[in-house]
From TrEMBL:
Pathway: Isoprenoid biosynthesis; isopentenyl diphosphate biosynthesis via DXP pathway; isopentenyl diphosphate from 1-deoxy-D-xylulose 5-phosphate: step 3/6. Gene3D superfamilies: 3.30.230.10, GHMP kinase, C-terminal domain. Belongs to the GHMP kinase family. IspE subfamily. Its EC number is 2.7.1.148. This is 4-diphosphocytidyl-2-C-methyl-D-erythritol kinase. It comes from Xylanimonas ulmi. PANTHER family: 4-DIPHOSPHOCYTIDYL-2-C-METHYL-D-ERYTHRITOL KINASE, CHLOROPLASTIC. Catalyzes the phosphorylation of the position 2 hydroxy group of 4-diphosphocytidyl-2C-methyl-D-erythritol. ATP binds at P110, V111, A112, G113, G114, M115, A116, G117, G118, S119, A120.
Amino acid sequence: MSPPVRLTAAPPPTARVRAPGKVNLSLRVGPVQDDGYHPLVSVFQAVALYEEVTATQARPGSGLSLTVDGPQAVLVPTDETNLAWRAARLLAEHTGVEADVALHVRKGVPVAGGMAGGSADAAAALVACDALWETGVPRSDLLDLAARLGSDVPFCVLGHTAVGTGRGHLLTPAMTRGEFHWVFGASERGLSTPAVYARFDELTQGGAAPVGLDDDTALMQALRAGDPTALGAALHNDLQEAALSLRPELGRTLDIARETGALGAIVSGSGPTVAALARSRQHALAIAATWTAEGAADAVWTTTGPAGGARQLT
Ligand SMILES: C[C@@](CO)(OP(=O)(O)O)[C@H](O)COP(=O)(O)OP(=O)(O)OC[C@H]1O[C@@H](n2ccc(N)nc2=O)[C@H](O)[C@@H]1O
Ligand SMILES: Nc1ncnc2c1ncn2[C@@H]1O[C@H](COP(=O)(O)OP(=O)(O)O)[C@@H](O)[C@H]1O
């Protein structure tokens, strides 16, 4: 007699995807347009701090659900306003698939920190659901859907280093050599991106100079040469003054980084995370230790860039 066969249900199909956070090596902001957006020229670099989204097939008719974990999970909505949820919904509408899926988001990027953590979740959710549902959406369509979710989302799909124009969503990959060492100092309290743009409008009285690609020639050359000293000198952020006027204490975080020999220090995007470029991994650890000792940031990360874009892990 053959032994009894134990039947166990196969686990539901899943797809796990990670997508990177970013720092704007250069962020040049033009005057606000009628649609409320600002024309940008920005050089984005993806860094090796990742968001991870797991999409698990749910029972037919059960719809979408979402959970979040990570140190700042309480700050993140778990309803239809979450960018990962919106991404899954948009892909389902685009492909005609029923969105019966459980999403789990593991946060590794500061929330509301100017590092595109929510955008990375949207990018990862698009790629994860496309894999789970086997919808095979072409890359260019995926980037169009990404742009509908937020200006930074296409870059989180693409990763590496790229120049963004338009709202920041039209991307051209940039040539870089080597690896750059970064330190990020995050705040417990985030800054709202629209509030920082609004303060920029106040400070410039709506009359910011038009932006062009020529202003970043030295920065692009530094990236091509893999020259961190030249890159540090070329870092630029037009939103920095606005972020500093909303959070003056960030000035001290920038000063401490410079006093500790950072090759450059800027507010990351709309802030309030501060990014410092270090000479080496050891130097990055020294800046991180100084920020921690001085209480200049609530949480500190050392990492490297450029990092790859949204990628399926399992
Ligand atoms: C400032 C930047 C720099 O990369 O990112 P963060 O530093 O916040 O991550 C981006 O421009 C943020 O991109 P993202 O967070 O995707 O913005 P969106 O969802 O598209 O827009 C949110 C709001 O930001 C403002 N906005 C965004 C992009 C843009 N080119 N002009 C704008 O004025 C608008 O007020 C808009 O309503
Ligand atoms: N998946 C998500 N992760 C984080 N924040 C999200 C997410 N979806 C929506 N949000 C909302 O977007 C805001 C900004 O998100 P985030 O992308 O972390 O910051 P930033 O735009 O500064 O890079 C948060 O305060 C939160 O309310």
